[in-house]
Amino acid sequence: MNPDRPVLVLGPSLGTTAATCWGPVVDLLAGEFDVVAWELPGHGADRGPVPADLTIADLARRVVDAVAERHDGPFLYAGDSVGGQVGLQLLLDHPDRVLGAVLCCTGARIGTAESWAERAAQVRASGTASLVSATAARWFAPGFLERRPQVGAALLHALRDTGTDGYTAVCGALGAFDVRDRLGEVERPVVAVAGAHDAVCPPESLREIADGVREGRLVVLDDVAHQAPAEAPEQIARVVRELAARVTTEVAR
Description:
48% of the residues lie in helices and 13% in strands. The protein has eleven helices and six strands.
């Protein structure tokens, strides 16, 4: 770790990897931040045992432990979808560790316990490959796959390659997560980033976060659906830089 650079921790969305979700943003921020990216259980290179009855709080603790192996101070956080929910949990449970957060395409609650149970049942029966076609329509704004076919294909391949146990465990964590009544406890600065075409977490979901926390700001991105870091990396990189400059100035006071 370079002591002169802020630490940026990145959390991916369900069915992706840190590299496919956040790689384009990391490339743009190279040399400006020390990046710590983590994987969801059963996703990407994380092929160890999947914890039973996984919760978002469990994932937040995993993140804190992983960061502590490399850095013992506070950090900036950015996450997409379930990665954004982990950011909310970090802000609630570990506020001394998080300087501020960019929460993309997420919600204080996403879907219902029933909808996530149905998704998990489909994956147990048919595997993650059965999700690819419908997921492409949910994840990407119209025209994205034609403009950036390699980026889109990498994300969909990551989904196909995700282990059944890991995917279904995260579905369970998503189904149980609801911190709508705790948003007012979040004191650190939060930028809530919505995709204008996101049917999973529409702009209203991000507005709820921005309005509910004590220092929130809403950004709505045109031509973006549910994978903002991959769909609009330049805009996400700018939001991260702006938040970093803000919290660095406040810390220096």
